[in-house]
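Raw record, unedited: VOC family protein
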Amino acid sequence: MSDHTARIDHVVLWVSDPIGSAEFYERILGTQPVRLAEFAAGQVSFPSVRLNEDTIIDLMPQTMAEHMKMLPGADKSAGHPVNHVCVALPADAFDALLARLVEGEVPISEISHDSFGARGPAKRSFYFRDPDGNVFEARHYD
């Protein structure tokens, strides 16, 4: 079966400690590490975490910035602000994430209602930061 639906394959975040970031995302967001052991062994240049079957978040060490040669100026993207990455979850996973953040004493924004997104107005949403200051929004539609 071929699915030609456009979707986000991955997002690359600059991080200071890829292993620590992977642990944060696994503990807080419930992601699964990808290539973490290989990164720790020096076999690959960055690890990732799997958000779902279709999407991963690459955790690019800031020290790799000088190796970014795919486009002129790409090496200067380390530390370049991305406004935020939004993760849409089912209501129960949203509540579980919120509880883990509160339990882990990770600061969160107020809960918003009916904010617009890819599927229309979200029932609830909020924002939080990862250890490197990257901003995430969590939301649910159902």
